[in-house]
Design goal:
Strand content of chain A: under 5%
GO biological process, one term (chain A): cell division
Keywords (chain A): Cell cycle, Cell division, Cytoplasm, Cytoskeleton, Mitosis, Nucleus, Phosphoprotein, Repeat, TPR repeat, Ubl conjugation pathway
Strand order of the largest sheet of chain A: 1-2
CATH class of one domain in chain A: Mainly Alpha
Largest sheet of chain A: 2 strands, antiparallel
Number of helices of chain A: 36
Number of helices of chain B: 31
Distance between the termini of chain A: 90 Å
CATH architecture of one domain in chain B: Alpha Horseshoe
CATH topology of one domain in chain B: Serine Threonine Protein Phosphatase 5, Tetratricopeptide repeat
Radius of gyration of chain B: 31 Å
Shape of chain B: elongated
Oligomer: heterodimer
Number of strands of chain B: 0
Pathway (chain A): Protein modification; protein ubiquitination
InterPro entries (chain A): Apc5 (IPR037679), Apc5_dom (IPR026000), Apc5_N (IPR048968), TPR-like_helical_dom_sf (IPR011990)
Distance between the termini of chain B: 58 Å
Strand content of chain B: under 5%
Subcellular location (chain A): Cytoplasm, Cytoskeleton, Spindle; Nucleus
Radius of gyration of chain A: 36 Å
Helix content of chain A: over 70%
CATH superfamily of one domain in chain B: Tetratricopeptide repeat domain
CATH superfamily of one domain in chain A: Tetratricopeptide repeat domain
Structural class of chain A: mainly alpha
């Protein structure tokens, strides 16, 4: 029997042209380490009731990783056992010693005795338990060995044991080597062995198929869920190469190597690994699925699909489209609707890069539901909601759709999609300008226990949804003036998503945006200008907008205007409404800065109409502020006060601190302006309430450190106090103003004309 | 040990060969060859001995008086003689451990070498046996020659003390190479070549370790006539065929015209540059001189296969099978034979057998892939090609084969990657370029396709199809001017070859040209082409119709100049002014070429 296997094995094992990785169908075999484990198990059975409960529990926890993990040196194993139960470690060592220093028959006897644990009316080990399966595997593998293999196993055991002994001995005898000549000889030998040793360390020993599978699945899930915990790219690649050296037919290793290359953005080796994987898979597919060419055709279309995904990931959209077309064609030819659905979703993603395509997406959702692909369906819904939100569809409908898809997620326990859905909601609430709701959703995701955490113990940590939510959280905190908290969050992001990882660009952008805002508030325009380049690299539209803002702040009005006009046209073309409104506001601001309030008005009205249409509440309020300011300047402060009442509530509820301050400041200004026509008694009341409002504005500005605005508020307050005849308060304000005024350069725009 | 060193020196002095390229004293060379053959044999180095003997055989026989004297025995040799004799006989019987046991403690160079060599071979043999007996499939990569490390330690001590002779250095180099210490190994082999230039084994090992021309430049090699053989060999290995052929020619001129080794090497070189006729004739010559030769016959069979010479291949296969059917080359030849007879299952079987005999025999994987392709067993073909690539990443035929497989599976985009790899390895091979072009055409990327076809034509198209394809592309794109140019070039190419082989697309070319000139109202040219069309079956009617139309139009119009210019497409006119400008522009296919 054995000889037949041997002859089969030695030759490239070809049947029907397919080389089998493993003719025996044995996924595991006996090694000295496994024998040590067997000894441990049998000792565990023998010790039985003598073991304390605590020790037993510790040992049980130790067993599983030992059974699944790679082989290790005896000393390490002994240490691990000693930590749980020192007494047992000693007896395992003695048993091994007896076997290794005894004769071959001791080992044979040991294996004969192993099967006893299954016998009896009440066996120690259940046949189908984890331990039972392991034992049976080992017994089977041992029985399949030929004579020479048995002998080799025995010598391997002896070496395994002796290496450990020698190591112990070396530790003790290290100092006793006094004979210089001997030392010399030893040195020379070691020196010569140098390069070899390294090699030996590198290949710490082959993994059995089971061990390899465990290793691969573990690393793959880590890569998906928490990249920072997985092995570093270089060392993982080394392990994989090692694995492939021993078994080149292990296709999954190629796939993991593809994933690993993606981590370091290596187009060449990732393409290579991906294609290699599918080349290999085509074989195993043909072999394992006996129903004709189904299995093998299947992998073909998925191969093309994966290639499309790869090109898309690296931004080669044209290539991706070609590959996708191929996948679609093959899938159509073989009537594989499920693959077609996957292709459709990818097609949507690709088309999205070029133009929006709701029709495609709706179609995809319908079909996916029809074929029972909840994952794809709900991904489609998410994308659709996103698209619709940008297109200004009614918010309640979108929320309804999200709720429906959430139902789907919970029903199918799609924890990943639940995360995505929450992140989506966070983003949508922010889009609508409801920061409180956004904050709440973000916190929900972060404090929610992932479903997978229950089963696997792996927290899904580095998915895109987490990155999105954390970035929003950072920005929300920065808006409220909690800069320390924001930078804390960013620090955390940096740790969780190292700079070369896939989602790192997100936090890079947010980080720079926050820094930009701070620089603008402080009036350090040169710093802001230097940040623009970084923002442009990550997001060109955002970069152009910020550039215009810097130009505006530096009073380079005509350049800013030119840039904004260009940006406006571009954004209208790509239907980025949010940006259109922001740009319109900036343009209006340019106009009123140049004292052309009448021209600013229609622009502002346009922005207001757009914001209302797309229910971007926050932008709408901001537009109203601008509008009110223009009205104030045009001499209708009563009207301004009227519309301000509309905007003040949402701004105070959801706005950034800076906007709150501006709003209050504006309210005070309007109050003062409209008080001019009041009776003296009423006038004093109005002025006093204006002073209170100014106080509020002052606290807001102080929070975000806006010195310029503070200065203006102080000036204004001082004037009011002066009018009211409160000299002491007036003097205090005037002093504070003077301090600030000395710090800051005077700017060209008259105080009363500035609202921001 | 001191005496041993002196002995080695004496041997080296005796072996000192005349300077590089100096073949004036063939007798001296012959003497050296004979003596080194003898010494190699004494040490169990059979291949080197064989090589020297083969070369010696090609030279004139020596008279009795000039035969090299039997090697002088030193005191040490005499002391070790008994042990050596016993051990050598064990060694010849492949009982290496036994031989080593009786040789331990021997001091003479010869016995010491045999001692170390038997230990090395014993380790190698055990390694092979271990592979069978390893505990699990994954362990097979881990089996290694246990003796190597000990051998390295001992030999390096001797090396440091300068006690190794040429053969000892050679063995030390082999051990180093087996341990993957390539740099050290090269140094040692160079040293071995200096000490004992006559030992072909050291040169051959050096050939395997040198990967490019730059490396070769920086080696300081002994200036002997052996160097010429080495250079010729390594040029062949590095695909510098022109240089190699030159070297071999000069060796033949120097008097080695009868050497079968040189003849076979020349044949292989011609095979590599695909000069099939020359290679075939040389192989035939070789078979005549050395009818029982098995080496290189696989290459010969490849040539016969390409030329579809069934009877010759069949004869060769039967002949080799009679000589020794359990040789890798024989299996390969038989595989080719079956493949030519379209019995692909059997062919695959024989390639498998070749691999069983020698798993490191690269070509068989690729050939097997081709067979599975023929059998439409794509998955097995992919498997075989992948194996070939694993053994040798630079095997362009395997990459090309993989591309073809996916093309058959109708995945033109997917196979682009494989064709590109093949193209990178053979940038000047038109077949890959044409394949690439076809894929791009299928993907409707016509600009890329045009580039590929033009490039294929520019690097010298073998199948002469690139131009036609290019012309058709231009036709599709309504670029009639360029299309006509391409067809003209195509026709010129076909005619200038002088081959009378019926080419399928010639008629299409003439038809297009006739119509093109007709449209341009160039009646003379149009009628010339139309007349040509009449020579082909499928275009005869069209040609006649066109001729009639031309005649009508001519009669209507003014009488054109009647002097008939020489047909523009004939090679006579093209030789002077019409040589196609084969500018090779950089091939920038697309932004992404992983």
């Amino acid at each position: 029997m054995a000889s037949v296997h041997e002859s089969l094995y030695f030759n490239p094992m070809l049947t029907n042209g397919v080389v089998h990785a493993n003719v025996f169908g044995v996924r595991d075999w006996v090694t000295p380490h496994k024998m040590a484990l067997l000894v441990l198990l049998s000792e565990l059975g023998r010790a039985g009731a003598q073991l304390g409960l605590l020790e037993r529990r510790r040992l049980n926890r130790l067993l599983l990783p030992l059974l699944q993990g790679p082989d290790m040196a005896l000393s390490r194993l002994r240490k691990a056992i000693e930590e749980c139960c020192p007494h047992l470690a000693g007896s395992v060592h003695i048993r091994l010693k007896l076997m290794a220093e005894g004769e071959l028959k001791d080992m044979e006897q040991f294996f004969d005795d192993l099967s006893d644990s299954f016998s009896g009316t009440e066996p120690e080990v259940h046949k189908t338990s984890v331990v039972g399966l392991f034992l049976r595997h080992m017994i089977l593998a041992y029985n399949k060995l030929s004579f020479s293999q048995v002998y080799k196993l025995y010598t391997a055991l002896q070496q395994y044991f002796q290496k450990d002994e020698k190591k112990n001995g070396a530790d003790e005898n290290e100092m006793e080597l006094t004979n210089p000549e001997e030392l010399d000889g030893k040195m020379e030998k070691e020196e010569l062995d140098g390069p070899l040793r390294e090699e030996e360390i590198a290949c710490s020993g082959p993994l059995s198929q089971k061990q390899a599978e465990y290793f691969l699945s573990q690393q793959a899930s880590l890569l998906k869920n928490d990249e920072t915990k997985a092995l570093a790219p270089a060392s993982l690649q080394k392990e994989l190469n090692n694995l492939l050296k021993f078994n080149p037919d292990f296709a999954e290793a190629h796939y993991l190597s593809y994933l690993n290359s993606l981590r370091v953005q290596d187009v060449f080796s990732s393409t290579h690994s991906l294609l290699h994987y599918f080349d290999r898979l085509i074989l195993t597919g043909a072999e394992s699925k006996s129903n004709g060419d189904e299995g093998y055709g299947r992998s073909l279309r998925y191969a093309a699909l994966n290639l499309a995904a790869l090109h898309c990931r690296f931004g080669h959209y044209q290539q991706a489209e070609l590959a996708l077309q191929e996948a679609i064609r093959i899938a159509q030819e073989s009537n594989d609707h499920i693959c077609l659905q996957h292709c459709l979703s990818w097609l949507y993603i690709l088309e999205q890069k070029i133009f929006d395509s709701c029709v495609l997406l709706e179609h995809s959702v319908n079909k996916s539901l029809h074929f029972g692909l909840p994952y794809l369906a709900s991904l489609g819904i998410q994308s659709l909601v996103q698209q619709r939100a940008f297109a200004g569809k009614a918010a309640n409908k979108l929320m309804d759709a999200l709720k429906d898809s959430d139902l789907l997620h919970w029903k199918h326990s799609l924890s990943e999609l639940i995360d995505i859905s929450i992140a989506q909601k966070t983003a949508i609430w922010r889009l609508y300008g409801r920061s409180t709701m956004a904050l709440q959703q973000a916190q929900t995701l972060l404090s929610m226990n992932s479903l997978e955490a229950v089963n696997v113990g792996v927290q899904q940590n580095n998915t895109e949804s987490f990155a999105v939510v954390l970035c929003h959280l950072a920005e929300l905190h920065a808006e409220q003036g909690y800069f320390a908290a924001a930078s804390e969050i960013l620090k955390h992001l940096k740790e969780r998503f190292p700079p070369n990882s896939q989602h790192a660009q997100l936090w890079m952008l947010f980080d720079q945006k926050i820094q930009f805002e701070r620089a603008m508030n402080d009036g350090r325009y040169h710093v802001a200008d230097s940040l623009v380049a970084g923002i442009t690299a990550l997001n060109s539209i955002e970069g152009a907008y910020r550039k215009a803002i810097v130009l505006k702040a530096q009073n380079q009005m005509s350049e800013a205007h030119k840039l904004l006009q260009k940006l406006l046209i571009h954004c209208q073309k790509i239907k980025n409404t949010e940006m259109v409104i922001s740009v319109l506001l900036s343009i209006a601001e340019l106009y009123w800065r140049s004292s052309c309030h009448t021209i600013a008005l229609p622009v502002l009205l346009q922005a207001l109409a757009l914001a209302r249409e797309y229910s971007l509440q926050y932008l709408a309020s901001e537009t109203v502020l601008n509008l009110a300011f223009s009205q104030l300047i045009l001499g209708i402060p009563e009207q301004a006060l009227n519309i301000l009442h509309m905007a003040i509530e949402p701004i105070l509820a959801h706005g950034a601190v800076l906007d709150k301050g501006c709003a209050m400041f504006l309210v005070a200004k309007c109050q003062v302006a409209s008080a001019a026509s009041y009776t003296p008694q009423k006038k004093i009341e109005a002025l006093e309430s204006a002073i209170l409002n100014l106080n509020e504005a002052k606290t807001y500005f102080a929070k975000v450190d806006c010195k310029e605005q503070l200065r203006d508020v102080l000036y204004f307050q001082a004037r009011l106090f002066h009018t009211l005849g409160k000299t002491q308060e007036r003097n205090k304000c005037a002093m504070l103003f003077r301090q600030l005024h000395q710090e800051l350069p005077a700017h060209g725009v008259p105080l009363i004309n500035a609202f921001k | 040990a001191v005496i041993g060193r002196a002995g080695a020196m004496a041997a080296a002095v005796m072996a000192a060969a005349p300077g590089g390229g100096d073949f004036s004293d063939l007798r001296e060379i012959k003497k050296q060859l004979l003596s080194v053959a003898e010494r190699s044999r004494e040490r169990g180095l059979q291949h080197s001995g064989k090589w020297a003997a083969e070369l010696a055989f090609a030279l004139e026989p020596l008279p009795l008086s000039e035969l090299p004297p039997p090697p002088v025995l030193t005191e040490e040799d005499a002391r070790d003689l008994d042990a050596y004799t016993l051990a050598k006989s064990y060694f010849d019987l492949k009982e290496y451990d036994r031989a080593a046991y009786f040789l331990r403690g021997c001091k003479s160079q010869k016995a010491y070498f045999l001692y170390m060599y038997s230990r090395y071979l014993s380790g190698e043999k055990k390694k092979d046996d271990e592979t069978v007996d390893s505990l699990g499939p994954l362990e097979k990569g881990q089996v290694k020659n246990e003796a190597l490390r000990e051998l390295r330690v001992e030999l390096s001590k001797k090396h440091k003390a300068q006690e190794l002779d040429g053969f000892g250095l050679y063995l030390y180099g082999v051990v180093l190479r087996k341990l993957d210490l390539v740099k050290e190994a090269i140094d040692v082999f160079v040293e071995a070549a200096h000490v004992l230039p006559l030992h072909w084994g050291a040169w051959l090992e050096l050939c395997n370790l040198i990967t490019d021309k730059e490396m070769l430049k920086f080696l300081s090699l002994p200036d002997t006539w052996m160097k010429e053989f080495f250079l010729a060999h390594i040029y062949t290995e590095l695909q510098l065929i022109e240089e190699a052929l030159q070297k071999y020619q000069s060796l033949i001129d120097a008097g080695f015209s009868k050497s079968t080794y040189i003849i076979s090497q020349i044949a292989v070189a011609y095979h590599n540059i695909r000069d099939i006729d020359k290679a075939l004739s040389i192989f035939n010559e070789l078979r005549k001189q050395d009818p029982y030769r098995i080496e290189n016959m696989d290459t010969f069979s490849n040539l016969l296969y390409v030329r579809s010479m069934k009877p010759e291949l069949s004869y060769l296969a039967h002949n080799l099978c009679e000589i020794d059917k359990y040789r890798v080359e024989t299996c390969c030849v038989i595989g080719n034979y079956y493949s030519l007879r379209s019995q692909h299952e059997k062919a695959a079987l024989y390639f498998q057998r070749a691999l069983k005999l020698n798993p490191r025999y690269l070509g068989a994987w690729t050939l097997m892939g081709h067979e599975y392709m023929e059998m439409k067993n794509t998955s097995a073909a992919i498997q075989a090609y992948r194996h070939a690539i694993e053994v040798n990443k630079r095997d362009y035929r395997a990459w090309y084969g993989l591309g073809q497989t996916y093309e058959i599976l109708k995945m033109p985009f997917y196979c682009l990657y494989y064709y590109r790899r093949a193209h990178q390895l053979r940038p000047n091979d038109s077949r890959m370029l044409v394949a690439l072009g076809e894929c791009y055409e299928k993907l409707n990327q016509l600009v890329e396709a045009k580039k590929c076809y033009w490039r294929a034509y520019a690097v010298g198209d073998v199948e002469k199809m690139a131009l036609v394809k290019l012309a058709k592309l231009h036709e599709q794109l309504n670029e009639s001017e360029q299309a006509a140019q391409c067809y003209i070039k195509y026709i010129q190419d076909i005619y200038s070859c002088g081959e009378v082989v019926e080419h399928l697309e010639v008629s299409t070319a003439f038809r297009y040209l006739a119509q093109y000139y007709f449209k341009c109202k160039l009646w003379d040219e149009a009628s010339a082409c139309a007349q040509k069309c009449c020579a082909f079956n499928d275009t005869r009617e069209e040609g006649k119709a066109l001729l009639r139309q031309i005649l009508q139009l001519r009669n209507q119009g003014e009488t054109s100049s009647t002097d008939v210019a020489a047909p523009f497409f004939l090679p006579a006119s093209l030789s002077a002014n019409n040589t196609p400008t084969r500018r090779v522009s950089p091939l920038n296919l697309s932004s992404v070429t992983p």
